[in-house]
């Protein structure tokens, strides 16, 4: 019996051993079996980034070349209304507000209706015009015609247009309320009255501004005054729109130096497409002050700080590699490159935030791997 048990145990061990030998040995993963890196992620060798995978994600490249960069000053600025394109709309007669047609922050066209005022003086002026017009039809001396012209001028001063005066004479139906119109197209910055408010002649009702252009108040040090004059080109950048440059020209320089700050204000007229610049905003102004010279330059947006060094992403072999560079002065949205690049090099000029984040993500992954 014991001998049989021993033989059975030996047979079991023999079968188990054969079974293990028949299992295929684990093979190292082939290149095909390795998981593919996510598109655009940094590779281990030099944090290379596949350009082809990144183009659909907003990365664009450009060639490094020499550019003519002007000497510039950088000074702080504040956005103001263009006072030549800002209107305070006031009441022309005494009365009370019957209707408001617009409110603050609404766009309006030139001559758009803003409000209606019920005014006894306005009603009286219309009735007087109609009486004189009737008299003028039967007056051969011309005196009534002169009086009619005076009455029409009074209606114009009260806000009626020539077309409205002709309609009044044709219909002989006075307007119930005085219409208040916008003298310019733009945005309603303020409405200062409510329905039912009584108003007096000259009382402000609305402020309307055309923001297609704005003024920029530039703060110049005494040492900078001689470099700036009327007509000097200027470009603004803001924290709200860091990738946008708003171009304009200097209109005038202040007549005095502020004693407290030893600065002089210069005023610039700046184009404001889309009304992006808002009065009260702060900005950085770049003023072109000297002749241009040709230097190796790249867009300012193409240079980032990586590990405390100025860096660009250079294209080599279809991949983007971080390339440290030494940069000089920045002018006109371009920055001079002193070391690290040569004319004709291809670098990333858009999508730098994505590239930087991929490199940092790759470095974090390598840190966890150790």
UniProtKB/TrEMBL annotation:
Residues 123-173 form the CusB-like three alpha-helical bundle domain. Keywords: Cadmium resistance, Signal, Transport, Zinc. One of its GO terms (cellular component) is outer membrane-bounded periplasmic space. Residues 296-356 form the CzcB-like C-terminal circularly permuted SH3-like domain. GO terms for biological process: copper ion export; plasma membrane copper ion transport; response to cadmium ion. Residues 87-208 form the CusB-like barrel-sandwich hybrid domain. Residues 213-289 form the CusB-like beta-barrel domain. It comes from the Bacteria. One of its GO terms (molecular function) is transition metal ion binding. The keyword Mitochondrion does not apply. Residues 33-42 have a biased composition (Basic and acidic residues). CzcA and CzcB together would act in zinc efflux nearly as effectively as the complete czc efflux system (CzcABC). The CzcB protein is thought to funnel zinc cations to the CzcA transport protein. This is RND transporter.
């Amino acid at each position: 019996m014991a001998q049989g048990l021993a033989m059975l145990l030996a047979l079991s061990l023999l079968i188990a051993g054969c079974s293990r030998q028949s299992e295929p040995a684990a093979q190292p993963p082939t290149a095909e079996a390795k998981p593919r890196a996510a598109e655009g992620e940094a590779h281990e060798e030099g944090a290379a980034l596949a350009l082809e995978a990144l183009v659909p994600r907003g990365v664009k490249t450009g060639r490094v070349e020499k550019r003519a960069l002007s000497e510039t000053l950088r000074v702080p600025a504040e956005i103001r209304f263009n006072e030549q394109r800002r209107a305070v709309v006031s009441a022309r007669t005494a009365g009370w507000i019957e209707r408001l047609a617009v409110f603050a922050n609404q766009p309006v066209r030139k001559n758009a209706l803003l409000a209606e005022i019920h005014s006894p003086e306005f009603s009286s002026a219309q009735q007087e015009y109609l009486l004189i017009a009737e008299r003028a039809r039967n007056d051969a001396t011309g005196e009534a015609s002169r009086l009619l012209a005076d009455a029409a001028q009074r209606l114009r001063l009260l806000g009626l247009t020539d077309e409205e005066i002709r309609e009044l004479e044709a219909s002989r139906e006075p307007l119930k309320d005085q219409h208040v119109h916008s003298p310019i197209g733009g945005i309603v910055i303020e409405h200062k009255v409510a329905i039912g408010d009584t108003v007096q002649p000259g009382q402000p009702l609305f402020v309307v501004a055309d923001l297609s252009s704005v003024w920029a108040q530039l703060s110049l040090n005494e040492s900078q005054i001689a470099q700036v004059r009327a007509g000097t080109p200027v470009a603004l950048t803001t924290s709200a729109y860091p990738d946008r440059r708003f171009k304009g020209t200097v209109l005038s320089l202040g007549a005095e130096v502020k004693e407290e700050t030893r600065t002089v204000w210069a005023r610039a007229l700046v184009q404001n497409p889309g009304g992006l610049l808002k009065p009260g905003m702060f900005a950085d102004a770049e003023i072109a002050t000297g002749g241009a010279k040709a230097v190796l330059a790249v867009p300012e947006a193409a240079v980032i700080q990586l590990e405390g060094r100025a860096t660009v992403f250079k294209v080599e072999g279809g991949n983007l590699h971080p390339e440290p560079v030494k940069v000089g002065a920045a002018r006109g949205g371009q920055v001079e490159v002193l070391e690290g690049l040569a004319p004709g090099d291809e670098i990333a000029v858009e999508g730098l935030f994505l590239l930087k984040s991929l490199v940092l993500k790759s470095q974090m992954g390598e840190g966890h791997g150790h």
